[in-house]
C-alpha cells in the first residue's frame, strides 16, 4: 500500500506542518487561537501585542557599559527591560508585559528543567550609520520561533504579534542602550518559550512562558586568521533525519558542547558537523556553512554551495537564506548558487585540485565569518583568503548584508524601529 499523507511514516513533520496551518491568526487576524495536542483549537485569547502592559525601570540604576567591558565578563549584560508573557491551557495567552529586567521564578518541577521544552530565537538590533535603528528580517525569526515552539508541543501564537513585542522592547531600550553616538553597533535579541508547568511526567506542558531579552554580544565575525573548523568525532552527530536539527530547540545545543570543547582545546573555533557515512557537510557550530569552489573540468564553473533544507537536518538560517537570495540576484552569470548535499571528501578533493576558492559560516551570532581551515581526521584543508582576512565573495556578500542592516542602503529587509525618545 502506498502511504498516504498523515500516515505513521511522516507523523512528526505532518503534525508540525498541520499545527502551523491550524494557527487561524495567520490567515484570519483576531481573535486568534491556540491548539495544544488532543485539546484542539479553542477561542481562548491569543498572543496580543496591543495588550502590552508597560512598567518602566528606573533608567539611572543601570548605566550602559562600553562594548569591550560589556563583553569581557562571565554574565550577559542585558538592557533595562524584558518582555514576558505567560500562557496556560485554560486561559490562553495573558497580556504581555514590558518590565524591568530580572530573574524569572520557576518551580524545580517545571517542565523545561526536565524535558527540554524550550526553544529560542536570536536576532540583532542594529544602530545604522544614518542614525536609525533596524532589525533584519524579524518576520522570519518570528515564524521560525512558531515552528520550533510547535515542534516541542508548546502553545502556538501569531508570529506577527511576537514581532511587534520584539519591536516594542527595542523601541524602549534602543535609544539608551544603542545610542546614536555608536553607529555600527548592535544589541542581541533573545526571544524564548519555555514549558513552565510544575508537574513531573513526560507530557505537553499546560503552562508556558514567552520572554524576550536584549543584551550585549561580542563581535564574532572576524576572528584573526579566520575561523578554524574541526569535523565532529566519528561517533557523534548533531542532528539526524527524523530528528529536530531544523528547529531552534535548546535540546540541540547542550549535547554539542562536548565536541565543541574538545575542538577548542585543540585550537579550533567550531565543529563542522558531518552527517552519515558519506560525511555530508551540514553546519558549522550554530551557523550555516558555505563553500565557493570551481567544478571539475577545463571549463570549471564557479559555485557557491551550501547544504539543502529538504531533509530537515539543518536550521533554515535567516542569514543563510539572505546569502542565497542576494548571491542569486547580484552574482548571476558570475557564480551559480547550489543548495545540495556535498561531502567533506568533495571539499578535500577540490582543495587538492586547487578548486576550493573560499568558505564561510553564516548566522546571526557569527554574521558572515571567513573560514580559513578545516581539520578532518588527520587532514588539514587550508582555505584561501585572497583579501587577507577573507575571501572575495565572502567579503562582497558580507558588505551587501551589512549595508542593509546598518542603513547604508534602504531595503525592505531592514525594518526600522520607531524609537521612543
Ligand atoms: C541560529 C542557527 C543558525 C543561524 O540562523 P540565523 O537565522 O542566520 O541566525 C544556523 N544553524 C544553527 C544550528 C542555529 O542554531
TrEMBL record:
<dbReference type="GO" id="GO:0005739">
    <property type="term" value="C:mitochondrion"/>
</dbReference>
<dbReference type="InterPro" id="IPR036038">
    <property type="entry name" value="Aminotransferase-like"/>
</dbReference>
<keyword id="KW-0028">Amino-acid biosynthesis</keyword>
<keyword id="KW-0808">Transferase</keyword>
<dbReference type="InterPro" id="IPR005786">
    <property type="entry name" value="B_amino_transII"/>
</dbReference>
<dbReference type="InterPro" id="IPR043131">
    <property type="entry name" value="BCAT-like_N"/>
</dbReference>
<dbReference type="GO" id="GO:0009098">
    <property type="term" value="P:L-leucine biosynthetic process"/>
</dbReference>
<feature type="modified residue" description="N6-(pyridoxal phosphate)lysine">
    <location>
        <position position="248"/>
    </location>
</feature>
<keyword id="KW-0032">Aminotransferase</keyword>
<comment type="similarity">
    <text>Belongs to the class-IV pyridoxal-phosphate-dependent aminotransferase family.</text>
</comment>
<dbReference type="GO" id="GO:0004084">
    <property type="term" value="F:branched-chain-amino-acid transaminase activity"/>
</dbReference>
<dbReference type="GO" id="GO:0009099">
    <property type="term" value="P:L-valine biosynthetic process"/>
</dbReference>
<dbReference type="InterPro" id="IPR043132">
    <property type="entry name" value="BCAT-like_C"/>
</dbReference>
<protein>
    <recommendedName>
        <fullName>Branched-chain-amino-acid transaminase</fullName>
    </recommendedName>
</protein>
<keyword id="KW-0663">Pyridoxal phosphate</keyword>
<dbReference type="Pfam" id="PF01063">
    <property type="entry name" value="Aminotran_4"/>
</dbReference>
<keyword id="KW-0100">Branched-chain amino acid biosynthesis</keyword>
<dbReference type="InterPro" id="IPR001544">
    <property type="entry name" value="Aminotrans_IV"/>
</dbReference>
<dbReference type="InterPro" id="IPR033939">
    <property type="entry name" value="BCAT_family"/>
</dbReference>
